[in-house]
Amino acid sequence: MPAGAKSPPSASAFPAATSPCSSAPTSATTPPSTPSPRSSPRPHAGLVPWAELEAQFKGKADFVTGLASKALASYLTHLGRLRAIAGGGAEGELPELAFIAHNIKGTAGALKLMAIQELAASADQAARDGDPAARQLAAELADRLDALIPELEARKASAPSSGPQPDTPKPLQ
Fold first, then answer.
1. Residue 83 included in any domain
2. Beta strands in the chain (DSSP E)
3. Which region ranges are annotated with the description Disordered (predicted)?
């Protein structure tokens, strides 16, 4: 080596790199087309088992997106009332909570959201029983929906437009 020239860095200077013959998978062997989990386009990805739902409905992604859209509309409608009931003290609100929780239980079950379905079932039953804990369950249910809504919104927004929308006039032929 000529005087003043630096020696090449050793392999230990690059801990993430391995030799091409190494059988251990590393970031150096990961194909560039594989997206990292952090770059997922859906916030809070993982709450809804999308692949399981699409498999259950024989690959009909549009149908699954429709289920998500309907659940989203329902959850957005009920979220404010859940919060109000959770913070309120009127006895007359418990039948309404039972109705709302029952509705959420059904949509959560359709989306395979078992933890939310079970919480909604508990809130439904507590409200029917007149249990004061029903209000706390309503608050917990609202918190779970707050965490879920961004994922449902992302699924709905990522759906490709499939033809004219219902209020879009069709072109003349």
1. yes
2. none
3. 1-45, 152-173
